[in-house]
Design a protein that fits this description.
Blueprint lengths: L31 H9 L6 H67 L28 H5 L2 E3 L5 E3 L3 E6 L13 E4 L2 E4 L6 E6 L5 E6 L4 H18 L2 E3 L2 H10 L12 H5 L7 E6 L1 H9 L8 E5 L14 H10 L2 E6 L2 E6 L13 E3 L2 E5 L9 E5 L2 E6 L1 E7 L7 H4 L11 E9 L7 E4 L3 E5 L8 E5 L2 E6 L4 E6 L4 E4 L4 H12 L17
Parallel strand pairs: 7-8, 7-9, 9-10
Antiparallel strand pairs: 1-2, 3-6, 4-5, 6-11, 11-24, 12-13, 12-23, 14-17, 14-21, 15-16, 15-20, 17-18, 18-19, 20-23, 21-22
Bound molecules: nicotinamide-adenine-dinucleotide (NAD) and adenosine-5'-triphosphate (ATP).
Nicotinamide-adenine-dinucleotide (NAD) binds next to helix 7 and helix 9.
Length: 521
Amino acid sequence: MAPNKLNSSGNTSMPCSQGENGFVSSFSLFPEKVVQELLQSPVQGSDDHLIEFSEALRTVAKALRLVAEGKASAQAEATEWKRKYELERDRNLKFEHAEKSCIEHQADLDDVRTNNPAKQPTLCNEANGQSEKCCSRNGICSHEVLRDGTRGSDSKMVKKASFKLSWFSKGDQSDQYKHDIVSFERGNITTAERSSKQISLKWESCPQTVLILTKPNSVSVQILCAEMITWLRQQKNLHIYVEPHVRVELLTESSYFNFVETWNDDKEVLRLHTKVDLVVTLGGDGTVLWAASMFKGPVPPIVPFSLGSLGFMTPFYREQYKECLESILKGPISITLRHRLQCHVIRDAAKNEYETEEPILVLNEVTIDRGISSFLTNLECYCDNSFVTCVQGDGLILSTTSGSTAYSLAAGGSMVHPQVPGILFTPICPHSLSFRPLIFPEHVTLRVQVPFNSRSPAWASFDGKDRKQLAPGDALVCSMAPWPVPTACLDDSTNDFLRSIHEGLHWNLRKTQSFDGPRET
Ligand SMILES: NC(=O)c1ccc[n+]([C@@H]2O[C@H](COP(=O)([O-])OP(=O)(O)OC[C@H]3O[C@@H](n4cnc5c(N)ncnc54)[C@H](O)[C@@H]3O)[C@@H](O)[C@H]2O)c1
Ligand SMILES: Nc1ncnc2c1ncn2[C@@H]1O[C@H](COP(=O)(O)OP(=O)(O)OP(=O)(O)O)[C@@H](O)[C@H]1O
């Protein structure tokens, strides 16, 4: 440390510094009297005195240095605390902001769900630089995935295509959404004019990436898949994704398919919705279910081609795949937003309701049944914490309206138009003469609990797969998922639905009574 210099008046200029936040002068650390004595006492001529004085100065300097160092570290600590505080404060501000916008967004969603016309959102679309309100609860926020561009196989940056969803009704030119809740004018409660709300998807930028999913172990499907990929690449210059095993099959056939892309692990599957503009399924209903199960969040529009057996949800014919795809890629597309159920298994050992296993999304239904046990199931059911009933029989089906024509139908449930938002509550062979199926509104949360006095465990299965055992005390909680599956219509939601129950299930098909016969008198 540099020796202290005497200033012009013989005073020692002691080290002191003004730090950025008011670091005090060193002198104020000592009693005024001592400092004055030190500074006033003139340096005596005698060596002893000089030595004594310089010793005293050294001691003071050391003390000051210690103080300064102590102050500095205290200062550094204070600065560090201040930095941490500012970081925490910024984080809290961000969180509050996010929470506030989430509350606003939820309010928007609630407004949408209560069909508040003033709040009808139109989907976001950053492609043309407009930042509009967020999408509806049942829509797909195309802007949410637009941010991620990806590199195509030719290493060109591929942006996700943007699109807009709108409601339109055939007769009415405007696509304004008509609110269909009751309105109250002059004391008369009336239901607003209902409009056929067919949902339409309009591309705002060209789709560039297609994922093709195929039913396994089918030669005819493999042949069509190779042909369709070749056409999409040569005529439309699209990026194509397939499942890993399909890419291996294609390359075995010809190295031409080297441009086809795939993924390496489940983490990449979770990001698929940020890359894929359109999904094409080649198979039956199970392939559509398989396609939906690959998306744990937003689902790109799905174009199901019928190459299965029944094909209830697969309206497109393989023979006209070129015309179909031309029209789909050009748009607009009539789509059916097929609601999904989000299921959580809550184990008895869980500490609280939020400690659940990974949520499972189903497009058809979740069933809770007796499995291989020969005993009746005994399931306690609640709707929003209100007791509903106790199911004693083979089990219970909680189904979407899309799944109303699947297992639920076989168990005696009603067939419901897939655009109707609701949850079907259908018992499987109930041992009771009075148990009729129910349909709940889409906003409820259903809970199925295995009571502790149940003679055997129950089993849950999701779209017919992934069976999980439910021990006494375990529960399954189910509610509407926020991400529906948008499937393209050949005509529109209603005509496609009617065609599938007529052609697929031969609903109410009977010989017509002959004209001749007794007459009314
Ligand atoms: N007793 C039954 O009817 C029964 C039993 C088990 C599963 N299923 C259904 O099978 C579905 C799984 O289908 P998969 O193809 O993976 O298995 P799968 O191959 O066993 O097909 C079962 C049948 O259900 C039909 N199906 C599937 N979803 C349908 C829907 N939404 N509407 C009308 N029919 C539909 C399929 O076309 C198929 O013919 C389950 O979600 C369940 O609904 C039905
Ligand atoms: N890409 C896939 N990977 C693995 N399994 C699949 C895939 N696609 C379909 N599956 C399964 O293969 C089975 C048969 O598929 P799918 O249901 O489409 O054909 P299908 O039964 O002949 O037709 P349908 O369901 O219309 O009667 C289903 O259980 C389905 O879950």
